[in-house]
Design brief:
It is a single chain. This protein is α+β, with helices and mostly antiparallel strands and about 280 residues long. It has a single domain, classed as 2,3-Dihydroxybiphenyl 1,2-Dioxygenase, domain 1. About 20% of the residues lie in helices and about 35% in strands. It is built from 5 helices and 19 strands. The strands form 3 sheets. It has a 9-stranded mixed sheet with strand order 11-6-7-8-5-12-15-14-13. An 8-stranded mixed sheet has the order 2-3-4-1-16-19-18-17, covered by helices on one side. Strand 7 and strand 8 form a beta hairpin. The radius of gyration is 18 Å and the shape is globular. The two termini are about 15 Å apart. One of its GO terms (molecular function) is metal ion binding. Keywords: Dioxygenase, Metal-binding, Oxidoreductase. It comes from Alteribacillus iranensis. This is Catechol 2,3-dioxygenase.
Length: about 280
């Protein structure tokens, strides 16, 4: 099952604030393996397939380095189609001497790196959903380290050509101020389902029984404040609903949970209780 298309609600793209556009573009093309879709003096849109924009980089005026102990992005996660794609990324990282972490989450295998501005990036491959362990409505997940040698491709390495065209935005993981408020917003407001309560500081929500489309944590401190508009970090991310009717229903639900929704440039925009901005779209 495809968990990132109709009739599922999913995360489709992110916009990041960065300090140096040229430095960031070089990193995202040469290290991450995305391609430039289009670029201006202050922005760059990045793609894997040449068509769909996954990441947009913006260099604000008067930008300041990433502020500490704030809500916002923990990481965004690029989902590659197959495990063999992930092994090719590992070989690429090894060849370029890129520092990374590798973890087994039971539902997936994942690599973690950070861009030059400190924005977290996950690149991962899902295990077959038939292997996911569901009990009482919750999916089992963990974070066990993986040896790099276990993820290296077998046989002769292939020349690196960047991330495969089938790469999509798999999920986003956010720092929030309070778990209870975040859970209410993302479930009662946006309509996601709680699928894993890891502990008092971390929850995972999804649609269509995916392991998670959004993860939420209070690791930056309960009651943490949002970053200033000039700070490096998350500008916004998009949530895509299966149709206009579902989107409009969620707009009402968001207002019912006390969230404000406004229309900007023909799109509906809201913020979660921690100040994370979300663009509300539909198929």
């Amino acid at each position: 099952m495809n968990f990132h298309q109709h009739p599922i609600t999913y995360v489709s793209d992110v916009t990041l604030k960065i300090e140096d556009l040229n430095r960031a573009v070089a990193f995202y093309t040469e290290v991450v393996g995305l391609k430039v879709h289009h670029q201006t003096d202050k922005t760059a849109a990045l793609t894997a397939d040449g068509s769909s924009v996954l990441v947009t980089l913006e260099q604000p005026d008067h930008v300041v380095p990433k502020e500490k102990n704030r809500t916002g992005l923990y990481h965004f996660a690029l989902l590659v189609p197959k495990r063999s794609d992930l092994t090719e990324v590992v070989q690429h990282f090894v060849n370029k001497e890129v520092s990374f972490l590798a973890e087994d989450h039971l539902v997936s295998e994942a690599l973690y790196i950070w861009d030059p501005d400190g924005n977290g990036i996950e690149i991962y491959a899902d295990r077959d959903p038939s292997q996911w362990d569901w009990k009482n409505g919750e999916v089992a997940m963990t974070s066990d380290p993986i040896k790099t040698t276990d993820l290296l491709p077998k046989g002769e390495p292939k020349p690196w050509k960047g991330l495969p065209a089938g790469t999509i935005m798999g999920h986003i993981h956010l720092h929030v101020a309070r778990i209870e408020a975040a859970e209410r917003f993302y479930t009662k407001g946006l309509g996601f389902e709680l699928v894993n309560r890891h502990n008092e500081q971390t929850i995972f929500v999804s649609d269509g029984k995916y392991h998670h489309h959004v993860a939420l944590n209070t690791w930056q401190g309960i009651g943490a404040h949002a970053s200033s508009p000039e700070s490096v970090g998350l500008q916004s991310f998009s949530v895509v609903f299966p149709d206009e009717e579902t989107r409009d229903k969620r707009l009402v639900q968001l207002e019912d949970v006390g969230a404000s929704v406004k229309e900007e440039n023909g799109e509906y925009v809201t913020e979660d209780p921690s100040g994370n901005q979300i663009i509300l779209r539909h198929e």
